[in-house]
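Re: duplicated header lines in exported C-alpha cells

Our pipeline writes sequence and C-alpha cells for each protein into one text file. With two proteins the header for the second block appears twice in some exports. Here is an export where it did not happen, for reference. First protein block:
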Amino acid sequence: MTLTARSELSLMTRFDKMEFLKETCNEEIINQNFLDEMVSWMGEDDFSKFYDHFCSCWDICQSHQELNEKYGE
C-alpha cells in the first residue's frame, strides 16, 4: 500500500469504508462473507448489544421462541 493510499484510508470514516465495500464487492461477499467476518471480530458482549439493537430497530424476532409466540408454530 502506498503512502497516498494509506493517507486516503486514514481519512475515511467507517461509513465511507462501508460504502466503498458496497460499491466494489460482489453480492456474495457483502451478503455472506462480510457479516461472518464482522461477527468473528466482535466479542460476545459487543455482538449481543449489536444483535439486540438491530433486531429491535428492524422489528426482527430474536429467537425461535419469540418467532413462535408472535406467529405460532
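Second protein block, exported in the same file:
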Amino acid sequence: MDVRSPFFQTIALILSGVLFLNPLVVTAADLAVATGGGATLTQAGNGVPVVNIAKPNGNGLSHNKFSELNVGQQGLILNNATSATQSTQLGGIILGNANLQGQAAGLILNEVTGGNPSQLKGYTEVAGKSAHVIVANPHGIRCDGCGFLNTPRVTFSTGKPVVENGRLDRFSVDGGEIVIEGAGLNASNIDQFDLITRSARLNAELHAQQLNVITGRNEVKASDLRVTAKADDGSDKPALAIDSSALGGMYAGAIRLVGTEAGVGVKLAGDMAASGGDIHIDLASGQLTLARAAASRDLHLEAEKIELTDTAYAGRTASVEAEGEVVNRKSLAAGETVSLDGAQVTNQGVIEAGVNPDNTRNAQGDVSLSGQSVRNSGTVIASRQLTVTGTQTLDNQGGTLSGQ
C-alpha cells in the first residue's frame, strides 16, 4: 500500500480538515502582505494563518514583504513545503506552497514596510524544509511569548535588509527597538538567535543556544555579524543600548552582547547564564552595569566603565577591562584566572581565582589587578599567583590580599 498515492493524500486532506481557500480573499487583521511582495496568505484547517512564501531566487533567498506582520497566540506558518501536502505542528496537514515551484528556500526574509512595530505573541513554524528566518522591521519588534519551530537560526532586526547580487548582504540599522516582555522568548530549540537593533529592552526571560545581541547605528553583515559602526548623525540616542530588568534574564549556551554607540551604556539587572560557553560583552563606550552572571567557560567584559553589583562567575577566565573605573561590589570568581584592568580598580567585595563550579578549590587560580589607582577594601584570593599593580595609588586599607 502506497500512502503517497493521490487517493490517500486526498483522504488525509479530508480527515485533517484542510481548507482550500483563495489567497486573494483571505484576510487577517494583524497580517498583510505588501503589494508585489511575492507572498500570499491562506490558513490551515484549524485557522492558523499560513504564509505561502515567495519563490526563492537562485541563492535560496525568499524575500517577503509585509505592510503588517504580527503573530497571535495561535501562531503562524511560513510555508516552505514543496510536496503536495505537509504535516505541521501548528496547523496539522496543509497544502504545499505552489509559489515555490519545487524549490524550497534556505533563507526566509520577512521585511515589514509599514509603519507599525511587529507584535509576536506566538510561535512561527517553517513548514517543509528548515530555513533561516528573519524578521526585519525598522519600527520595532515586540516579543511576548514568541518562539520558532523547524529553523536553525532566527534573526530579529530593526535595520533595513540590504540585498546585493541576489544575496542578503547586511542590515543597515538607524533606529528601532526590540522588546522582550510578558511571556518572554523561547529560542532554546534553535542553534542561533540574533537581535540586531539600535536598542533592546528585556523585561522577560530570553532562552537560546547561541545568543547574539548587537546594538547601535551599524552596518551588520548578515553572514557572520561583523559590525561597522556608522558615524554619529546627531539623532537622539537611546538612554541605554540594552536594558534588562530584574525579570529580563538571558539564558543561553553562549552569549555575545555588542554596543557600538558612543556614550550609550548597558544595564543588566536580570540574570545571565551561559551554560555551554562564554559571555562576551563589548561596549565601545558608556557604562556597563552587571548583576548576576555565570559562564561555563569565559566571562569577558569591556566598556568605558564597569560596575559589578552582584555575583559573577566564570568556569575558566574572568576578564574585566575598562578605560575608566572598574568596581566590584560583591563577588567575582573564576576557575582559573581573574583579571581586572582599568584606570581605577576598586574592590569592595570578594575576588577569587581557583574556584570550581561545585565551589571546591583548585591550585591553578591567578588574580591580576592593574590600574593607575587600585583600592581594595574587600578580599582578593589567588590559589596560585596574585599580581596587584597600581602605577599611582595602591590602597589596601581594610582589605585582604592572599596569594602563593
